[in-house]
Amino acid sequence: MPQAQNKKTRNVLFYLRLAVVAAGIAFGIYWLSAQDAWPRLIQIFSSINLLVLAATLSMFTVGHVIVGLRWWLLLRAQAITIRPGAAVRLYFLGWFYNNFMPSSVGGDLIRAWYVTRHTDKKLEAALSVFVDRAIGLLTTLIIAGFFYTVFIRGEGREISFEKSAGALGSLAKYRRFLLWAVVILVALLILLYITKPGRALLQKIWSFVRVRIVSIIRRTRNAFALYCRKPLAILGVFALTVFVQLFTITGFFLLGRNLGIGVSIKYYFVFFTLVWVIGAIPVSIGGAVVMEGSLAYLFIHFADVEPEAALALALCQRFVWMLTSLPGAVIHIIGAHLPKDISVDLGDN
After folding, report:
1. Is there a domain that residue 272 lies in?
2. C-beta atoms surrounding 232 within 10 Å
3. 113 CA to centre of own chain
4. How many whole angstroms separate alpha carbon 329 and alpha carbon 332?
């Protein structure tokens, strides 16, 4: 019975996230139509140099291979033996699940499930996935903070939403759309609250969220205790993560230049890393719409980039993410992720 209730709660959360994506897409279409921006957006996309796009895809794919090896290093730090190629395959499988099948199970859980099936160190193996994700998010924040403090704020420019009243004020043109969205959301919450089944559902959602928060705190404490014994390994993983993120963002910088965005690469290092952290918040499916909207907003209002070009760059990032997920689909189809191909704790690395 509890499992059925948890499944129902997860389904409700999924549909809420799906609603966020649908609302974001609807607003994007409305904005493009109201601004008569479709011709300019199409023109920007048609001018993309395929060689530059291929270079960006290649750099992003190489970055993912390195991230897969980063996870392998974390496993090795806990004396969990797995072949590097197997770790990379499982990482690409997880990346595919994150981008194409978020309704069932996340990519991190996929990795954790497969690696814990074949080792007695189940806690360490599962925590390696959690630590891998945590290091990635922490590194993005460090990169964003460093480049913002040294290269943007240090040159007299600030990212301050208090100073963006004019930009936020422009949303008044879409107040009817936003008002209806708020009205529908409030009406839905009221409807749930005034009915007994609805109140029970809200309580289940809150319980689910609270359990997740407690679980994250516990896993963080356990991970910290485990990896404190391997400080050099963690330092090496951090350094590798910094390199990967700078490398992949440079690929998007090259693509942005091809789209006609002439701003300095420092903005990319700040904006992309901030957006990646925002995208990790599970308010939509795979960060869809939230990431695109945030990235376009930052480039438009804090780097003075043409709106259509900023939106094109944000959509290109999603395209690159989806396309680089396809190796995970191939791995799933040919069964390269199955136990017979993933040997753990056998010393065959």
Report:
1. yes
2. 8
3. 20
4. 5
Question: Is 116 inside a domain boundary?
Answer: yes
Of the pLDDT bands very low, low, confident and very high (cuts 50, 70, 90), residue 227 is confident
Instruction: Write down the residue that tokens 């599962």 correspond to.
Output: 126
- Domain membership of residue 219 (yes or no) is no
- Which domain, by its residues, includes 9? 2-164+227-337
Cβ atoms < 10 Å from Cβ of 323 = 14
pLDDT, tens digit, for every residue of 248-259?
999 999 999 999
Q: How many domains does the chain have?
A: 1
Structural domain includes residue 51? yes
> What type of residue is 206?
W
| C-beta of residue 298 within 8 angstroms of C-beta of residue 273 | no
Would you say the pTM of this structure is higher than 0.70?
yes
Spell 122-137 as b/e; 16+ CB within 10 A means b.
eebbbbbbbbbbbbbe
CA 218 to chain centroid: 23
As beta bridge partners, residue 344 has: 82
